[in-house]
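Thread: "does anyone have the structure for this chain?"

Original post by V.I.:
We have the sequence but no experimental structure in hand. Need at least a predicted one for the grant figures.
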Amino acid sequence: MTHHASPAFHIREASPSEADRAAEIIRTAFEEEAVLDPPTGAIRETGDSVRGKMQQGGLALAEIDGRAVGCVLYELREGHLYFGRLGVLPEHRGQGVGGALIAYVEARAHALGAPRIEIAVRTALPLTRARYERLGYALVEERCHEGYTVPTYAVLAKTSS
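Reply from O.Q.:
Generated one for you, tokens below.
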């Protein structure tokens, strides 16, 4: 039996010129969530929309052999660092890329002096929520998207260390 090691990847800050590639990664990574109610806005991301979000914070890319395979957007908000649109191309999942992107954002929060890190997770994705809870994120509150009367997403937070 031959064991193949996962290809090495590294995380780095992206430039605005890479927003188109990031939007492509986000759309592909979130494709299976298109069936959610309400539908995820991630599948409509464009280079321009990603560049707009970058102006509020930053974008990190995960690369394997110089090719971007994952990304995450983050922004400093009042009292915390928020991150979202964390996406990894399906063929590169299970290799630690997502975890490394989360660790990168957590390090950025610490470097920027943000005492807390937050993420919003759809209530329809309990496995995703459980993954963040295993990383030390805890429920802050459940919220509803506009026009909905039952919670559609949960805000999770972790103290920055």
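V.I.: this helps a lot. The helical segments are 19-29, 47-54, 97-111, 126-134.
O.Q.: and The chain has a mean pLDDT of 94.
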